[in-house]
Amino acid sequence: MDLETGFRQNHLKVRWKQSWTTVLTLAYQSLGVVYGDLSTSPLYVFKSTFAEDIEHSETNEEIFGALSFIFWTLTLVPLLKYVFIVLKADDNGEGGTFALYSLLCRHARVSSLPNCQLADEELSSYINETPNLALTSFGSRLKSTLEKYRVLQRFLLVLALVGACMVIGDGVLTPALSVFSAVSGVELAISKEHHKYVEVPVACIILIALFALQHYGTHRVGHLFAPVIILWLFSISSIGLYNIIHWNPHIYKALSPVHMYTFLKKTQTGGWKSLGGILLCITGSEAMFADLGHFSHLSIQIAFTSFVYPSLILAYMGQAAYLSQHHVIENDYQIGFYISVPKKLRIPVLLIAILAAVVGSQAIITGTFSIIKQCSSLGCFPRVKIVHTSSKFHGQIYIPEINWILMTLCLAVTIGFRDTKRMGNASGLAVITVMLVTTCLMSLIIVLCWHQSVFLAIAFVACFGMIEALYFSASLVKFLEGAWVPIALSLVFMLVMYVWHYGTLKKYEFDVQNKVSVDWLLSLGPTLGIVRVRGIGLVHTELVSGIPAIFSHFVTNLPAFHQVLIFLCVKSVPVPHVRPEERFLVGRIGPPEYRVYRCIVRYGYRDVHKDVVEFEKDLVCSIAEFIKKQKDDTDGNRVDGRTGNDEEVMRVVGTSSTHDKIRMGGHGEADTDGSEEIKPVKKRVRFVVPESPEMDDGSRAELRELMEAREAGVAYILGHSYVKAKQGSSVVKRVVLNLGYELLRRNSRPSTDALTAPHASTLEVGMVYHV
């Protein structure tokens, strides 16, 4: 099944004009994918809040104040900010930090991608869907300022990367905190002296099993996620309602904001520090926006407002009602979740909690894989192996290297901390930092993308930014008590991202400065001054214009090349998805008898790259379609690729699934439609030239030669570059390029790993880049 086509059909079906059945089905499915982390927060919120900063007194002012803070935090941040405001800032249905950054890149020229073209702005997903409103005077000045100063563009990129690094850190901390908190229920069944020796090994075993099963994907057990979370939310809300009725029916009075003031007035500094524990009640809120691409606005809103939000409020009120009548704290864990569960239900609830923690951890792990894929697509993270675990469900990926790194770090946190207090401090800082990044980017979205008044953006930042800044300060003050972990992890990942991005930009700048002009190639004549052999030669390059230095280096040392030469550029564009019919930009370099083409393949940051068989089929079909339409003088499908050469006009050509005028079939078999799936064992594909009276003899001969070359085989010519700092460079630059970037390059995947180019057909040409 075509992963792109399957996703687009699903995405378009749920985008607008949805039936209520579809909406409710998506709302049901979102419970297991989106709300696992948020739903398990009652396991550790009160325990972290009352860890040591404040004490539970007979007056209940601390409990009532904490409950009031929890209620209003859940109401203002997840409900008001995310459900009703941030979800509207989607990038063609996609959400997350990079979706916001992508939107800003399209409304102001602040993109960090080096090979951007004006042709990319003609993509249907690139076009602004916001009503055509003029920018305000402040918005125009802000846009001009961002486009003028490079330092501001880098600051925006760093801000987006900080959010991405904190999401990765959350991928380490959340599984450890959720699973350890769920397993902590065994403390009530055994003695205090032994429960810590049981909790850590059990939590580690569950975590190892969780990460070891990642390569199977979630589609095999994904249908069980929603029932688990529904059962968990039903359990904690029912227990909460029981505790309210049985212990304190008047607990609803504690929801008054007055109790927040009383809480801070009495506890003062201790109460401020305890906000780092209350903050944990909104862990997982960002997932509502980050996982938007798999669902829809309405489905996520219905699931949260009708079920998740009231269930969580009842759960927290129930815990507070129980604690308001129990003031004797014999052990530090007596303030936790399980003590408020009736004794007969503790074992079943413990089992459900462990399952819910696993589901919540699975969601954040998958989200970490997704954010790293996006970073890699935008050239901000070393290339890694990406395995698609499902052919039916888009977005379910597995990255082996990252999986084992996350598992190692997660086990280290669990074994090193061995308590929810320090784990909660670490997780809280990671969560609130991502929310602050979202708030900052949203303020720019309001002005630049939604074309609203600057005062509305200021009001947004003042309302939500002040709340998050308060929680951020409470988390940051616990730096030595666990909050250093996400900062350390973020610094390491930021260093990796910066070094890789810097090295990639320097490499591209060298390619641009040392590229060979098209005139040089044309001056060689139709044979290019070399021997032309049968087959297709694919020269991979990052350039969208000109001839890469790697090609001149090759033909200088080996004066022979294939009869059909294609300069191939596979690039990412700042949109989540590129439609198949807009995937390829194809142009000709020189007259037709040269048989030299340029093909630019555009992918969004969430697009699925095809395997080599499907890619070769689409590539050859797109060039054949370009040859057929070369006599068409209309400009409807023609796009100026701004290549710098007047003769090099690029044309948008779809993949083989978007046209069927060129038929293909295996050797000795009946011809099949171009959209039919080709099995990997059938690498050779025979193209049939259509007998069209509109096609002249030259085009037909060019098509025939293309088919003969395809039958002879395709060779991949890859540049193997070694980036070195040139003489006279600073010590920092030499360390970054000669040591850091080179270390990452040697341990990263090849640039064409996404296409799985066969080794037997691959030729690497080495060059040293002195930058």
Automatic annotation (TrEMBL):
What residues does the K+ potassium transporter integral membrane domain cover? 26-522
Lineage top rank: taxon? Eukaryota
Which residue numbers delimit the K+ potassium transporter C-terminal domain? 535-770
Membrane topology per record: Multi-pass membrane protein
Q: Does the keyword Transport apply?
A: yes
Report the locations given in the UniProt record.
Cell membrane; Membrane
- What GO cellular component entries does it have? plasma membrane
Which family does the entry's similarity section mention?
A: Belongs to the HAK/KUP transporter (TC 2.A.72.3) family.
InterPro entries attached to this UniProt entry = K+_transporter, K_trans_C, K_trans_N
| GO MF annotation, one | potassium ion transmembrane transporter activity
Source lineage: Eukaryota, Viridiplantae, Streptophyta, Embryophyta, Tracheophyta
Provide the protein name: Potassium transporter
Q: Which residues cross the membrane?
A: 63-84, 155-180, 200-217, 224-245, 298-317, 349-372, 397-417, 429-448, 454-472, 484-503
What are the entry keywords? Ion transport, Membrane, Potassium, Potassium transport, Transmembrane, Transmembrane helix, Transport
**Function noted in UniProt:** Potassium transporter.
